[in-house]
Structures are given as C-alpha cells and as structure tokens.
Amino acid sequence: MNSEIKRATGLMVIEVVNSNANGDPDRESDPRQRPNGIGEISPVSFKRKLRDLVGDHDSVFYQNLPEVYVKNSDHYCILESRGRDRKSIQSEMSKDIKNFEQKSFLESTFVKKYWDARIFGNTFLEEGANKGFIKTGVVQFGVGTSISPVNIIRHTNTNKAGVQEGKNAGMAPLAFRIVEHGVYCMPFFVNPNYAAKTGCTQEDIDLLKLLIPKAYDLNRSAIRPDVRIRHAWYIEHLNALGSCPDYLLLEALTPKRIGDVTIASKSWADYEDKTDLPEELKAKVSSATDLMLV
Question: Which contiguous run of DSSP H or E holds residue 197?
C-alpha cells in the first residue's frame, strides 16, 4: 500500500442553471435523466473535463500549475486521447505484452507518462496481451444524481446565415436542451490500496485536487454555460483503511431540499446548505476540506 496517499472520501455539490451538464447520446443529447425525473451526470463526463485540463500543456491553466507539473509535463500526458497510436502505447507498456511483471510495469514509460492511467486505472489491452496490464484506479467517481427531479427545456435553434450550400437560413429543431435548475451530488473515493499497482503518487492526487474546482469553470460551452460546483468536499481518514463509513460523511454533507423534494427546484435558495461536518463525524476523520475555498 502506498503510505503517502491517505484514504479519502469526496463529495461534489453541483448546481446546474440553464445548462446541459451531461447530454445523453441515446436520447438525442437530452440532459441525462432517470424515469423518475432525477437528473444524472456520468463519471465519464466529469473525468473527461479533468483529462482535458491536464492534457493541454500549453493552456493558461496548465502553465499556472505548480512548477513540478509544468517542468515535468511529460509525466502528465493523457492515455484516453483522441487519435492515440495503440501500437506505440503497447510498446510503452512492455516489450513483452504476453507476460506481466508488476515491478517492470511500474518502471515502464506507460506508468511514468500517463496521469489518467495512474489515477483512474486503465483497460487498455491489445489482443494477446496479459490481463495483468489492466488496472483498477486509485480514484473512482460515482454517478452524480440530482436531489430533486429536474425540468428539461427544449428550444429550436435558428441560424440566419444557413448551414448548407444554397440555404439562406437554417433550423435545428429542439437542439437546445437544458436543465432549468438542479442540484446534483457526485461522490468520489481515493483508495490507496491500488496505488502500488498503478504507480499513483501523492503528486497525482494533489493535481486532482487542483483540477476539480476548475472542471466546469474552464470548460464552459454554449450548451453548458452555467454549471457551478458549490462544494467539493475532500475528507481524509485517520488511517489508510478508513476511519469512518463513507455513507455517513456523504449524507452529512448533502444539502437538504426545502419543501416538496419531488418537485424540481428553481434556485439554490430551495436547499438548506451544509457547510461543515457535525462534530461527532469530525472526530472520526483527519480533515474535511472544501476544495472550492482553498
């Protein structure tokens, strides 16, 4: 077990205002929603935003990171990148992919190069390769779900200039699909038990803590202009195995809906905010930090 990394429980409280935080490709990019009206944000969607921030080494954000990341940017590449060369990546893992040896893997270019593989794990495997190369990540994000059902608004976009040859105007029927208002909670977990398998370091975790507060602010788009992380709780346990049940921490920091929880909210004022852990839970953990205030 990596003695540097402490077990941690995290909770993001995300407010969505007139935005589509995560479109569903199976429903023409409608905001993700369960049959009971509860909204969803997938872990894949959120991790994509973190990867995009890390992968752009020339961006203002990356260049303003602490020196250790800027000077060693070749250690903070992204495995899950568009157009990746699979054969090249395979050679970075090992010269002999049919056999797996943990010590050699940890010393490989693959481990040293890809931040997302070290922290989130990887399922990268070519035909004939040893399954030992597949790794479960140290950090796992859960599905973000809204506290109350969400209302979805659909508008048709118009384009005066036209989008096809010979057309002077165009329309995109019901293309603008947004959640009017919703407050979502997304848990995440840091498990040092896997760090020795993926090569994850404390510096990798420290970078994650810098990324989370900027995930939406630096990834705004026309369909996602106003997604606010109200809180990003990061709670370190007293020991590597965990000193408090995760669910107690998550329940204690989840905002409480004021009024009828089955009706979609209209604003942040429809919730009772939670700004700290109760004293009895504080005594069970090492620290409870809101990354948004650091």
Answer: helix 195-198
Name the nearest CA neighbour of 224 among 47, 22, 13, 14: 22
Reference 42, options 23, 14, 28; nearest CA is 23
Answer yes or no: is 38 within a domain.
Answer: yes
Q: Which residue range is the domain that position 241 belongs to?
A: 8-290
223, 24 contact by CB (below 8 A):
no
Domain assignment present for 2: no
> To which residue do tokens 């992204």 refer?
78
Q: For residue 264, is it within any domain?
A: yes
Q: State the Cα–Cα distance between residues 95 and 9, nearest whole angstrom.
A: 37
Number of structural domains in the chain: 1
Per-residue pLDDT of 171-227, as tens digits, reads 777 789 999 999 999 999 999 999 999 999 999 999 999 999 999 999 999 999 999
> If you write DSSP's letter for every residue of 48-113 in order, what string do you get?
HHHHHHHH-TTSHHHHTS-HHHHHTGGGSB-SS-TT--HHHHHHHH-S-TTS--HHHHHTSHHHHH
Q: Would you put residue 33 in left (φ > 0), alpha (ψ -120 to 50) or beta?
A: beta
Residue 63 backbone phi and psi in degrees, to 5: -70, -15
Residue 1 lies in a domain: no
C-alpha torsion sign, points 234, 236, 237, 242: positive
